[in-house]
Amino acid sequence: MSIAAEHPHLTLVTEQPPAPLEGVVIEKTTAVEKASAPGWLQAATDHVAEHHGYLPWAVRGYQRAAAQWMDRYRDDWPIMIETARAAIQTADASEQPDFKKLVKDHRSDYRRHRLIWTGLTALGAAPAVAGATIATATGNLWADLVLGGFAYLYGIRKGASEQEPQALAAGSQGQLDGSDQAARWEVRGEYDLITALIKAKIITEAQRTETRVVGQIRPDGPGWAATIELPEGMKAIEATPKGGNLASALRIKHQQIDFKPDTSEGAHEGQVALWVGNEANPLAGPKVYSELISAERWDFWRDGIPLGMDARQARQTLRLIWSSILIGGLQDYGKSYLARLIAATAALDPTVRIIVITGKKGPDWAPLKKIAHRFIAGSDPDAIREVFSTMTTVIDDMQARGDELDRLFEEEPHHVPEGKITPELAGNGMGPVLLIVEELQELLGGAALTKMPVPDDDSDKPRLVSAKPLLVDLFARFNRVSRFVLGMGVYITQRPDSGGVPTELRDVCVKRACFRTKTRESSEMVLGEMAVAAGASPHALLESSKGVLVLDEGAEDGYRTLRGDVIDLPDFAKICERGRQLRIAAGTLTGDAATRDERAKKAAQARALITGCLDVMTQLGRDAAQLDELAARVGRPADELVAAFGTAGVVRPEKVTIDGKRVRGYDRACFEAVLKVA
């Protein structure tokens, strides 16, 4: 068979377009699309994809949960233990056993806390672990998936925010920054604050549910405040002495906290007021100069004494009418500045009579010589005897004022409705009498070396005793008998111990102010044991706390810590000069201040006379001269010259040597002795 027969000819057939299909034609331009899902599901899927399945949030959430668990596990006990251990090194020897016991107690409490917290964690996790174990053992995959899903959602919820929870931190209103602040306790609410009370051993864990914050934790000036209701049966005065413990629990300094009984209207005995400052030293800052510097006049009775500001920047005023004040503390911390504020206020009120007794001579109180009714400086025996004479006279005057009040009450009772001096009487000759006793410890030291007759001993040879207890009794008696006739004492000492602050004098000073001290005992000597037991802590003030004082006025609201205003010595001198002019205009300049100019004039005349006599001796070429020689050279009669010498305080020697003869006259030494004293 031929090839042609085997392979017939092929015919080329052109391709014909396909016949159109009946129905709907869908134009396909790309790959075939999937059927679209519901919009909400697609959006959710995209959101999860964008956030990587929330895995970073879940990881961060469990990191935070672990950190919070460790924080609760430790619960600040390591810090408290370390703080107590550090206190052992700085405490007095008498206090070290107490701190060692505190360390031991903290460690015991820490072990118990860890055991309890671990047990509570195990109890909380047990149901979930048991459920997962049972589901796995029984092959229940759905139960495992549900548990895993809940665990994953918990992590996401915990790590949902990039920011840490905002907290009201002890010591800062905003986020804490700096390594020194990062470790401070953060008070996020009532639970954390009550936890701090438990750590401070003010309440126990069992009393947590009985303790509550009244109202809210609120911003208050440069800090925050809270009112706390203690468990039933606990008094506020039992809690407030532990303010130092609470400061430790909050990881702040003691001076940063104010923890006192709540004396507001509506409060009760079991309610305390807490204030915490933002700054480590809320009383720090530049000097604040007193408004008295620019005041032309001041009403001592009506306006009180402007003292300064407390930690909340609130102005504080001292009311001294009807009371006396004791001021103590270490040297150079502001005692004289506080006393100067009181004196300046009195100086600007012409109705106030001022008496100054200082145990040390110097310029600190010299400006008051312009207005003081009496001014005594020194602690030698002569000065001590002058103090006794002055105080006896003052007490007699105050008792005479009391007799006048009795007469007025019987004859004109409308002038003394309560049997006391009124502001009207004070402005009409019965004004306040302010006794300022500076350097009390020096006066008492000088009195201890001075012998005085026993009081009421009328014998020819009265027994002599130390003047110290007599002087203490004299000052205390002034406080007692003069209080209701506007007598006020201001006693300043820089040696706050039993020798510098006699208890019998402190007890009659209703108001007490204490600057920094070294020990709790010294604080108690000034403020009293009750004030220190209630939380007053001048011994906790820092070396930098100059001008900061703790003031206890014996009122219901207890003590106050504040920073006093400042009056420098030149400004004080100007205030005293204004006070002198006010008294001259009012006719109330009396005593030493009234005769000051006359005495200064006589002293100048005496100095001129004595200087002239010394010049005569120089001209004669010898160190002695007879009276007639001096009279002839000076140009004054002999008898007048003798009287002038006596007034000037010249002690005439028994005999002098002139040209080898012992004669009556005066020598150079007796004149120079007077000039030295002047």
Structural class: alpha+beta
Q: How many helical elements? A: 24
What's the assembly state of these chains? Answer: single chain
Biggest sheet, strands in spatial order?
A: 8-7-18-17-16-9-15-12-10-11
Descriptive keywords:
4 domains, elongated, 678 residues, ten-stranded mixed beta sheet, alpha+beta, four-stranded antiparallel beta sheet, 22 strands, Threonyl-tRNA Synthetase, Chain A, domain 2
Structure, described:
The protein is α+β, with helices and mostly antiparallel strands and 678 residues long. The chain folds into four domains: 49-158, no CATH class; 168-277, Threonyl-tRNA Synthetase, Chain A, domain 2 (2-Layer Sandwich), CATH 3.30.980; 292-588, Rossmann fold (3-Layer(aba) Sandwich), CATH 3.40.50; 595-677, Arc Repressor Mutant, subunit A, CATH 1.10.10. The protein is built from 24 helices and 22 strands. It has a ten-stranded mixed beta sheet with strand order 8-7-18-17-16-9-15-12-10-11. The protein is elongated, with a radius of gyration of 43 Å. The termini are far apart. The relative contact order is 0.07. Residues 1-14, 23-35 and 162-183 have low confidence and may be disordered.
Give a brief rundown of this model.
45% of the residues lie in helices and 15% in strands. The chain has 678 residues and is of the alpha+beta class.
Secondary-structure topology with pairs:
Blueprint: H1 3-6, H2 39-50, H3 55-74, H4 77-90, H5 96-138, H6 141-158, E1 168-169, E2 186-187, H7 190-199, E3 212-219, E4 223-229, H8 236-239, H9 243-249, E5 257-261, E6 271-277, H10 300-303, E7 305-310, E8 315-318, E9 325-328, H11 335-347, E10 353-358, E11 374-377, H12 381-411, H13 423-426, E12 433-438, H14 440-448, E13 451-453, E14 464-466, H15 467-482, E15 487-493, H16 503-506, E16 511-514, H17 520-527, H18 529-533, E17 548-552, E18 559-564, H19 569-586, H20 591-594, H21 596-620, E19 624-625, H22 627-634, H23 638-648, E20 656-658, E21 661-663, E22 666-667, H24 668-677
Parallel strand pairs: 9-15, 9-16, 10-11, 10-12, 12-15
Antiparallel strand pairs: 1-2, 3-4, 4-6, 5-6, 7-8, 7-18, 13-14, 16-17, 17-18, 19-22, 20-21
Helix pairs in contact: 3-6, 4-5, 5-6, 11-19, 12-15, 14-15, 21-23, 21-24
